[in-house]
Design goal:
The complex is a heterotrimer. By secondary structure, chain B is mainly α. Chain B has 14 helices and no strands.
């Protein structure tokens, strides 16, 4: 079976004043129909760029897809002309961004903005599109949806705006929903509600979800498969269970150790562990393993040769010589 | 929205009062008595002069004089021109249409230049078009209107002989010929003012569009699969108009300043050239009234901009 | 990485990785990248030098009347031609330049002084004083400046002339009035700087260490608002030069025998058909001065105040 989305050897570079930033440097990610895959990593590891590249939403220039393919249902999106790409956006692949406060246009009502998406792809009349927009708002559990459809974004709270964004993304029944840190900008209580909503929408509409996050907790709650990225590369890939049970890459181990454990903190004195150091420069990435400088198990060979992503157990890949 | 307009109107009143205080202060601080021509004219006998001073209230305390002056101004009772011996309000009403016509047309021209050029340049930052437009804009607003006016007269009237350089109200033609002559004599003043404002507004539009273009909601619009033209018009330009309106409103005093100069160069019988000739003839009532009218016009256009702003930005009018 | 950097996720990386350089050097690096600004700085410096020292080399008097050389077109003897009294226009342009530049810089100084004062008071006081001062600032922004300028000069010129003489009187009046109408942007900038810096750590730290209010303002807040104020001040010089030329062009600025650039244009405008050079050279000088100052201001904005675009 061909995966719904198959990213192969993707390299995205950005030209800056100081040189070429290799933001995404050879990434392979496959997502099957109806599956929820999560990409985890620190800020600047290339996860957002990867997601934006799927829809070709990165600014080019300065960005450039240097190598690789983005196969959607077997067709490569990279060489696709702009017009065909527009037919994919929202209709086949939709995206929800991190900042609900700024992702909606403040000068149009939320209904107008959702209806605009629907009209673009479904060729409906204005009135029909507005009706559908109200239905979508009701679907994402916005109270009083048929009234609120003619409210402006500033009349909604952050969590409600994110619901609007999700309604807009789902309005044309996409096969894949990319959610780029959809809960990061929200209050903790709201975060859980939005994740729950995403899970529920997925069950009802059956689309695949690519969830990008830096929070391991979010991963555990939503995803089936997890991809860990570090400094523009995939360092580990596994099912959620396998990843949390037996993390293979020292970076993943560090990420899991850095999850705060309230249940343990109450009874024992457990220190929250942070990973020492910071992400290396993507201008001149170090030779060898990019995590070497921060790794507690570092060996001399780590600094000379780059470890490849290999299968360590069935369905469990890691890029580490350990 | 109606409430918003009302609120703006109420805010405009103190501004108008503030300007009137400044005007009156200037007048009161002025050495001698600006209206002294009447009151000190040796041809007028002393007792008549005293009566005149009393009737003008020149010897009253300052605040009483201010309120009397203000009520007179607001009632349109602007006095009598020393020079042309007509009521000042008559004089201004006669002259106002020409000023508004030239200003209005030139501002439309300015917007017609600034909007497309600014948007086109901002959507292609640092391209050849952007750089050429930017340089031309700098040249445009660095050229003072009195110099461009002279250059145009030199080129179109003196050298080429295409256009008349004196504006006439008594064109002895009828029908389409009258319109044609009128158009011909309006071209240069409108070009001078319009190009100057167009140049600075191009920069405003460009920078406003550049500010909006990198906002998140534009990426959202693109992710919806909208064509680039629709993203630009509905999600970039529409939003960029909001700061542009504010900047344009801030330019209104400069626009009227430019109009005075242009009227003077082309001898357009508007209130700007009226002001200059009144100053040269020491015609104080006319000077005061014209300045007051200019102040009212600026406030009126600011109010208009505020209403437009509220209409463009739902965050303002619906809060 | 916030959502606002979606379009260029590399911005942060690039900013962090740049080698540390001093602010002055960094500003110079950015200024240099603005080619028009650099070229303008050179041209402007040359013009200032010519205006300041030109009369040592071009020794013709500005009021040397020569009826045998009336309205002559440019020649070796008179590179900019002569006017209707046979006076050398080059000499008059050089002289007028000194007045224009003096007016420009003096008016800028007035505007910056008033602006910094009003902005600082508003920024320090909050509450009622701040509201009132900002209302006044907005009010001044909506004044019809040219008519008021004309009105004030009309009302006060004679009185001041009696006290300090014609040229000085007009100079003081013009500088004060132009400066008095251009302080508002500076006041807003300084006030905004106060508001944004007041809560910053280093100001808090200075306050905690017991620094007095004046000291905090003089040592921490004002230096930090210097960049935007320099930019605004540069533009003010150009605006003041235009304002002075406009007044002179309307025949209401300096007295007729003082050849400022605007006055030269005023005298030339009725002779356009047979002596275009008379208008073109002073006009070009105004244009070039204003253009180069504007470009330098733009370059300074890139260098000192990189956040703003307009």
């Amino acid at each position: 079976m061909t995966p719904l989305l198959d990213i192969k050897g993707l390299k995205v570079h950005f030209q800056t004043d100081d040189g070429m930033v290799r933001a995404v440097d050879g990434v392979d990610i496959a997502i099957n129909r109806g599956e929820t895959v999560s990409i985890v990593g620190e800020s600047g590891c290339g996860k957002t760029v990867t997601a934006m590249t799927v829809l070709k939403l990165i600014a080019m220039p300065p960005g450039r897809i240097v190598a690789g393919q983005v196969l959607f249902e077997g067709h490569d999106l990279v060489p696709l002309p702009a017009e065909d790409m527009r037919a994919i956006r929202s209709k086949q692949i939709a995206i929800v961004f991190q900042e609900p406060m700024t992702s909606l246009n403040p000068v149009y009502t939320v209904g107008e903005q959702i209806a605009e998406t629907i009209r673009q792809h479904e060729g409906m009349s204005k009135r029909a599109a507005m009706t559908r927009a109200a239905e979508m708002l009701a679907l994402v559990q916005i109270p009083n949806a048929h009234k609120r459809v003619s409210d402006y974004p500033h009349q909604f709270s952050g969590g409600m705006r994110q619901r609007v964004m999700i309604a807009m993304a789902l309005s044309c029944n996409p096969k894949l929903l990319i959610a780029d840190e959809p809960t990061t900008a929200l209050d903790v209580t709201i975060q859980a509600q939005i994740l729950e909503l995403l899970n529920e929408m997925k069950q009802r509409l059956g689309m695949a979800v690519l969830l990008i996050t830096h929070a391991m907790g979010v991963v555990a709650e939503t995803a089936q498969r997890v991809i860990v990225m570090y400094a523009g590369k995939v360092v580990e890939e596994a099912t959620v269970e396998a990843l949390f049970a037996t993390p293979r890459h020292p970076y993943t181990q560090g990420l899991i150790r850095s999850i705060p454990r309230i249940d343990l903190a109450a009874t024992q004195h457990v220190r929250l562990e942070a990973i020492p150091g910071s992400v290396p420069s993507l201008l001149n990435p170090p030779v060898g393993c990019r995590f070497a400088a921060r790794c507690r198990y570092v060996m001399p060979e780590c600094r000379t040769a780059e470890p490849l992503l290999v299968e360590k157990a069935p369905g469990h890949k890691a890029a580490c010589i350990l | 929205m109606a409430q918003y307009i009302l609120r703006r109107l109420l805010i405009a009143i103190p501004s108008l009062l503030g300007i009137s205080v400044i005007l009156f202060t200037v007048l009161a601080l002025a050495p001698g008595d600006p209206f002294e021509e009447l009151a000190t004219n040796p041809a007028i006998p002393p007792d008549v002069r005293a009566a005149l001073r009393a009737s003008l209230g020149i010897d009253d305390p300052v605040h009483i004089r201010y309120f009397r002056w203000l009520t007179a101004m607001l009632q349109g009772n602007w006095g009598f021109s020393f020079v042309s011996r007509v009521d000042v309000d008559q004089l201004i009403l006669q002259r106002l249409p020409a000023t508004l016509l030239v200003i209005g047309t030139s501002q439309i021209l300015a917007l017609a230049i600034a909007l497309p050029v600014g948007v086109f340049a901002a959507t292609r930052p640092y391209s050849v078009f952007d750089q050429v437009a930017n340089t031309l804009a700098f040249i445009g607003f660095s050229l003072p209107t009195f110099f461009t006016g002279l250059l145009m007269i030199l080129l179109f009237s003196v050298t080429l002989g295409w256009l008349p350089f004196v504006y006439r109200t008594d064109i002895d033609a009828t029908g389409w010929r009258w319109w044609w002559e009128h158009l011909r004599q309006t071209i240069m003043p409108v070009l001078v003012l319009g190009l100057f404002q167009g140049a600075s507004w191009t920069r405003f539009v460009r920078s406003a569009v550049l500010d909006v273009i990198r906002l998140d909601h534009v990426t959202t619009a693109r992710s919806k699969g909208l064509p680039e033209s629709r993203v630009t018009m509905r999600h970039v330009v529409r939003n960029a108009l909001i700061p542009v309106v504010t900047l344009v409103a801030l330019q209104m005093p400069a626009v009227f300043g430019g109009a005075i100069v242009t009227e003077q160069i082309f001898r357009i019988p508007g209130i700007g050239s009226l002001l200059i000739s009144a100053i040269l003839a020491n015609d104080t009532p006319v000077i005061m009234a014209v300045t007051f009218v200019f102040a009212c016009l600026v406030i009126f256009f600011n109010l208009l901009a505020d209403v437009l702003y509220g209409w463009l930005d739902p965050r303002i009018s619906y809060s | 990485m916030a959502g606002s950097t979606l379009a260029s996720p590399t911005a942060e990386i690039a900013a962090v990785r740049r080698a540390p350089v001093t602010p002055g050097r960094e500003a110079w690096r950015r200024f240099r990248k603005h080619r028009m600004a650099v070229a303008s700085a050179v041209v402007l410096s040359l013009m200032i030098l010519a205006v300041l020292f030109g009369h040592f080399f071009w020794t013709l008097a500005i009021d040397d009347i020569d009826f045998s050389a009336r309205l002559q077109h440019p020649s070796w003897a008179h590179p900019f031609g002569t006017d209707d009294l046979g006076q050398d226009i080059l000499a008059r342009v050089l002289y007028g330049g000194r007045i224009s530049l003096a007016v420009g810089f003096a008016a800028m100084a007035v505007a910056v002084l008033v602006g910094v004062t009003v902005g600082s008071i508003a920024g320090m006081s909050r509450g009622f004083v701040d509201t009132a001062l900002m209302w006044l600032t907005d009010l001044f922004l909506s004044l019809p400046q040219l008519p008021l300028l004309l009105l004030i000069i009309y009302l006060f010129r004679d009185a001041l002339t009696k006290v300090v003489g014609v040229e000085m009187g007009v100079f003081i009046l013009i500088v004060a009035v132009i400066g008095g109408f251009r302080w508002m942007p500076v006041a807003r900038l300084v006030r905004a700087q106060f508001f944004s810096l007041r809560e910053k750590e280093f100001v808090e730290a200075a306050r905690a260490l017991g620094a007095s209010r004046t000291r905090i303002v003089m040592q921490h807040i004002l230096p930090n608002s210097l960049g935007p104020v320099i930019v605004a001040g540069t533009i003010d010089v150009a605006a003041a030069i235009i304002a002075e030329s406009t007044l002179s062009f309307l025949g209401l600025g300096f007295p007729p025998d003082t050849p400022t650039w605007g006055r030269l244009l005023f005298d030339a405008k009725d002779n356009l058909d047979f002596a275009p050079h008379w208008a073109i050279f002073p006009g070009l000088m105004i244009f070039l001065t204003v253009l180069t100052i504007n470009f330098v201001g733009d370059g300074l904005r890139d260098a000192l105040d990189p956040r703003r675009v307009v």
